[in-house]
């Protein structure tokens, strides 16, 4: 049974429960929402409805027992629970993710997303266990993988945007932080009254983390060494090590009683592994909620990218491993990997009828979504089935003892490659590719030809599913080398001509000179067959690209002959002179950098005429930097992966917003030394704005990140107010994914496009609440889709 807490807005409650107070019964029978977080109620449970009254007073206003989804709402028998003041119980309320509540001006905002309650908290709210404080709650939903995110940099040193190129931030003493003029509130937040306790004089207040912070920064504004944090009452909150503004080393957090709450291993800003330690005392840190009452420690082991957890382990006081229900883990069978977790119930359907067994597979952090390869074994270690998941958590393929969807897909493709090519492209995964590659080593050359043509073109529309996994040119080269390893083939065969030509094209795309020369020589030695095989799409692009006037053919010949190098040298000379730099096109710069860096085709992301600089991103996701007259080591890295850039942040350090037209915009949001670049252009012919740029970049220092922001936005005159520009009204950020879809700040109020969320004592408080919600949206997979001015609302 699932118990979920959801908030009733002030407007709805005062309209539908007008005049009712504590002790009265609000006879409601429904809760209007389709939020995904309510989905667990479909299997049974209770929906606890609360509302926040003036003064951050929390009321329980109803309980819907076993509600069912119907017509945009969750409906049940009419509520009979009287309105109850829960304000005194706020410190005892825990959610299933281990987090609790704090009674402050942000209470209403912290309840905007429905969340599952810990078991003991649900009992407390229902009145059956009111005398006991909640303990560690058992739940099947894994806790968030990250240790409490480290706090923000104290030495925020931006000057006016126009001064960034000419000035460097002054060195920040640990007891005299520089104020950030680009932020609308000071480093010492007005949300905290009073001065830091005597033991931490010189610290600054971080309102987002509710902590006093103290540490050193270098002359560029980068945090260096260990930064310490304390709560408002002076109790120790954390110790975070930094190297060049990146968290690097062991980050520790503490419960209010001084005991260790968590420690996490970070490598250059990437969270690798984290360990949480439970407590039965009141805490504002994440607490254990899995493993039953016997678990005292939980370990989350991540991969090298920091995107996923590869396994989770629970331990009791004696150091024995437990499962999520607190049951002792049995001896692991020899064929079951160390990363596999054992579940005592509910996760595996074993042949012997039991529900216990072993499960192995990664989950995406913050989102708790399965991805990649997942496998299930019985208690004895017998493999039951395998699943291949997309990065969006969608089941792609399943393999059981009786049914192998991958083999079925491959069988159909082998039987009729012309008819099944589209379906193979739809079902493509790296796992499927390796299985098919094994088959192709003994398959007819015509089948190799057809599969290469799919890799070259048909996966394009589906690449978003495996964008971080595949590199088609390299996989085509694998297939060509596999084919070369067979017995000799007839050089005039049309399949040999196609396969060798495809190898040369792919080698050229990644600027692999040795393979390009070898395969191009063989390709030219083959007389092009006049007749093409029927029922194939393979030659559609092939002839256009590698025919006598083909663009790829011209590129290969220019590269191998040295002509491209000579042309590149002339372009390089122009790039070294500010007077001629502007005359060089982005395409010429991209070709020059790709050739010199040995990279796949590159795209110019940013260029600065005054300093003869250019920053590029190639199709393998590698960043490049042109400095003056040649390539240089890049200190700026572009990426589409927002999670890695936001993991360390608890607020946005700086925002720049340019609004040049009716709907077009340029928004730059800096998080430490990482920047979100979101840009759109308005097309009058289509009557809408279309996004031109949506990318993150990370610089070496906050100062360098600011300089790049100025280069991007400088020519567009002065940025406007990021929240409520004159004449434009509030600026709404529109988000995709689950949760709040729109958000803006209007004076002291946090609003969406359809309703008012909450009014705060100050504009700074409203902005701080906005920051918290937006970071949560971005960290859990949502992204800003567009910006809308109030004056232009649909």
Report on this model:
The structure is a single chain. With 794 residues, the chain is an alpha+beta fold. Among the domains are: 2-126, ph1033 like fold; 248-403, no CATH class; 405-560, no CATH class; 562-639, no CATH class. The protein is 24% helix and 27% strand. The protein contains 18 helices and 40 strands. α4 runs antiparallel to α5, α7 runs antiparallel to α8 and α9 (494-509) packs antiparallel against α10. It is globular and about 90 Å long. The two termini are 41 Å apart. Mean pLDDT is 81; it is low at 128-193 and 460-470.
Gyration radius, in Å: 30 Å
Helix content: 10-25%
Q: Distance between the terminal alpha carbons, to the nearest Å?
A: 41 Å
Work out the number of β strands. Answer: 40
Mean pLDDT: 81
In short:
The chain is α+β, with helices and mostly antiparallel strands and 794 residues long. The chain has 18 helices and 40 strands.
